[in-house]
Amino acid sequence: MGVLEAARRHGLSVPRDLSVVGYDDVPLAQWSSPPLTTVHQPLRQMAEEAARLLLTPRDPGKPTLRMELATELIVRQSTAPPRSDGVG
Questions:
Q1: What is the value of pTM for the model shown?
Q2: Which residue from 11, 49, 57, 67 has the highest number of Cβ atoms inside 10 Å of its Cβ?
């Protein structure tokens, strides 16, 4: 949200002059001006898996488990394709 405000203060228009992408898809992102494109993480699933790993006994002889959870790009109005006029 701070980048959107800084862009405004410098006379830049988002997304005409600058595309902005956030992370975590906080609830406020959809209500910012313009609504913020963001990467959504499965925070609940992350917490559940972390708790499960903490509560499950681990064999010290086994390698550490690596887990990857999918993220999703939520496209809103703070991003646009590159300009074709050669500016920026």
A1: 0.76
A2: 49
